[in-house]
Amino acid sequence: MSAPLNHNADYRARHGLRPVINVSGTMTSLGASIIHDDAIAAMAEIAPQWVEMDDLQRRASAVISRLTGGETGFVTACCAAGITMSVAGAMTGTDMLAIEQLPSRTDGLKNEVILQLGHAVNYGAPVDQSIRLAGATPVLAGTATQVMPYHVENAINDRTAALLFVVSHHTVQFGQLSLEEVVEICRPRGVPVIVDAASEYDLTGFLARGADLVIYSGHKFLSGPTSGIVAGRKDLVRAAYLQNKGIGRGMKVGKESIAGVMAALEAWEKRDHAGIRAREQAALDLWKTTVDAMPGLYGKIMPDPTNNPLDRLEVHVLPESGFTATGLAKALAAGDPPVIVRDHEAELGFFFLDPCNLHPGEAEIVAKALTAVMNAPRPENAMALPRHSVEKALRWPD
Ligand SMILES: *Cc1c(COP(=O)(O)O)cnc(C)c1O
Fold first, then answer.
1. To test ligand 1's pocket by mutation, which of 78, 169, 201 has the most ligand atoms within 8 angstroms of CB?
2. Distances, alpha carbon 334 to alpha carbons 28, 309, 382, in Å
3. Residue located nearest, by CA, to atom 5 of ligand 1
4. For residue 324, what are the β-bridge partners?
5. What separation in Å is there between the alpha carbon of 393 and the centre of ligand 1?
6. In this predicted structure, what is the pLDDT of residue 387?
7. Which residues fall within 8 angstroms of residue 126, CB to CB, at 6 or more apart?
8. How many Cα atoms sit within 13 Å of 105 on the Cβ side?
9. What is the mean pLDDT of each run of 10 residues along the chain (398 residues)?
10. What is the atom index within ligand 1 of the atom nearest the CA of 83?
11. What is the pTM of this model?
């Protein structure tokens, strides 16, 4: 492949930023997405223009409805903002005074949100904080590994504003109630079910299976700009949208992101999904062949844990390689160019190579980087163990 690489090389070089290659997935910490060309064009086009924002959001609502099957929708700053605004909307409805009084004054409002304990994850921040930001109290149901219907039934009372259901590889993948089971409990009791589907390809399934609201990140698989999409029942979407006159102000989305995500959604409808899968498969095959030829490494092609149409290569790192999984990930990240792998489970002795964010030619560069690192003398931290530490974060901006 001879397509040009790193089309922002100039920008990054000019600002002293490393030209990272992302094989870790759609990561906020690496800039969220490769924004689709159509979205970039829409953002550039609207940037110098005035526009009536409620009308732009009405147009976005129509596109969101078409793609999700939801009655109504709007765009916000990100999925986390969408969760907070949806929870707030479930609390306040269209009561403007209540909207202005969040998050500290919630007397008289329903202010509890149920969350299965195995769904209480951290996606860069704790999901329960997205609930608390609205002024609501998370009510954790069940245990991390087992939630029964009676846990959720007994958590519901007359202060229950909503139940938040999280779909993610981060959650405990067993022992939790399914969306159908949760809907069966909540619907007859009048409790809205809000689904956090930030990273899911399935734009219609959660509403079709009974969710009242569903929230996506615009900047994950959709390849939009950093943004969030809320879709579903009109009364709940309207109440969530009204939070822009309250706590949503600090989560403001710009016209450029609304236009960008609308274009990304339209591009998603036309995208050559089969062609993309074939390119991802070719990358996985190349990496598996490379890894399997190395002493102490082997690769397994694994399906996505939440059934997105995406496979990843699970690279097992045995001691005879001279590396731990963490040590090898660090060596790749220190390379030229830096290759950032998906290593959040490194204590289990493997990391993943994720093919969904590659520019043309980068799959080959990743294979070469692996070979180079394996053939070089072992660096000092080759046998490093994963450390759960905020040390580096605390030093920023130094
Ligand atoms: C990424 C993610 C979020 C946060 O999404 P943002 O759009 O970055 O705010 C929330 N929930 C889950 C499950 C995620 O994976």
1. 78
2. 20, 31, 12
3. 79
4. none
5. 20
6. 86
7. 120
8. 6
9. 54 93 94 95 98 98 98 98 98 98 96 98 96 98 98 98 97 97 98 98 97 98 97 98 98 98 97 94 98 98 95 98 98 97 96 95 97 97 92 94
10. 10
11. 0.96
Candidates 3.30.1540.10, 3.90.650.10, 3.40.640.10, 3.60.40.10; CATH matching 37-270: 3.40.640.10
Structure tokens at 28: 């906020």
CB 21 within 8 A of CB 340: yes
The CATH 3.40.640.10 domain(s) of the chain lie at 37-270
- Give buried/exposed letters for 354-364 (b at 16+ CB in 10 A, else e): bbbbbbeebbe
Beta bridge partners of 352: 314, 342
Kindly give the interhelix angle for 37-46 and 255-270, rounded to the nearest 10 degrees.
150
Single-letter amino acid, residue 138: P
| Site residues for ligand 1, CB cut-off 6 Å | 28, 78-80, 123, 166, 168, 196, 198-199, 217, 228
- Which of 183, 211, 184 has its CA nearest to residue 197? 211
Q: What pLDDT is attached to residue 395? A: 96
Quote the ligand 1 centre to 320 CA distance (angstroms): 37
Distance 197 CA to ligand 1 centre (A): 8
Residue bearing the CA closest to ligand 1, atom 12? 198
What is the atom index within ligand 1 of the atom nearest the CA of 121? 13
116: three-class secondary structure by DSSP: strand
pLDDT at 3: 47
Q: What is the pLDDT of residue 388?
A: 86
